[in-house]
Specification:
- The complex is a heterodimer of chains A (283) and B (67).
- Chain A is mainly alpha-helical and 283 residues long.
- In chain A, strands 1-2 form a two-stranded antiparallel sheet.
- The mean pLDDT of chain A is 84.
- Chain A has one domain.
- Chain A is 71% helix and 2% strand.
- Chain A is globular.
- Chain B has 67 residues and is mostly helical.
- The longest helix of chain B has 19 residues.
- About 12% of the residues of chain B have low confidence.
- Classes of the chains: A mainly alpha (283), B mainly alpha (67).
- Chains A and B meet through helix 5 and helix 9 of A and helix 1 of B.
Chain lengths: 283, 67
Amino acid sequence: MFTLLKLELEKLLRARSFYLSFIVLIGFVALMLWGFYTYAARKTGGQAVQQFEYTYESKQYFNGLTFALYSLLFSFTLLLPIFVSMSAGSQIAGEARTGTLRMICTRPISRASLILSKFLVTAFHAGLLLTFFIGLNLVIGLIFVGWGNLELYPGPLNLVDEPGKIMRNDALMRFGYAVLSGTWSLLVIAALALLCSVIFDSPIQAVVITIAAYLSLYIVGRVEFFEHLRPYFFTTDMDFWRDVFKPNIPWQSLWHYACICGAYTTGLLLTTVIIFERKDIVT
Amino acid sequence: MWVKVVLLLLFCLMIVGAVHFAQPHESEEVSSPGKVVVSLRLLTWNIGYAELESDTRAHDKDLPAIS
């Protein structure tokens, strides 16, 4: 199993898409920073471009932690799932496309171990992406915006119902929690993409179908008319990761949704293993 | 085989965990759902009229105080 993991890790590190995902995330953070600069310039008529805080009524409101939180919440919904599904979707279908899947399956390893090792490597990639992204946002926020406490207000983030505050050190710890809860949440997408990767022989098909399923449920879940359908979508349960940024973390609810996401992940993985073991590999 | 067993165990563990940490429903929070509980809603305009009557609307003479 360890040899398998080592081999899969080597494959991941040699893939260009692995580095591309980090480059795109750097580009996203640069865009966010540019967006906030132009917003500050517009709001103050170009007077206070260097100091975002003058754009807001509360001078303590906007700081590096707020910047990191905005950047993370905006990207988590749409950007990170794409990279995770790309990584997971190409695991089996990518081998099938390049013609190496049959050769791999002739080795004296079980197909279940192969799936598990590929999933673990994808999970590692997801965790690394999130750690890198949060770390980069915090560093950029510290350099360009400055430190402070994390102040939360009811608004576009839809995070709290009433104003709240998280002290700086506690807020930094919350970002650490977000790495764990966010990675756990993204594993549902990874498991779904891996299942699609086993079912379809083309990695593009696997990735597109995963993203299409995710976006469809996400969009339908946001429409007010279909509010009664929301509890049945995995996208609703995946949102639990944001709870770590609430002033008082609702631990019971967080564990509840974390377990539901875990059930989705393990259930999808089990299905993937069963299908892959019975699959006739002809490519 | 062991991979499937581990995954199945984890799946069951997650289901049990989700049920364990589920928030109790509102109907379960009430100790006796069939029993009608009569309670007094203390509102701005019924202070001084602490009666368990169904009509808790403001009296005409209270209007200056609440307007």
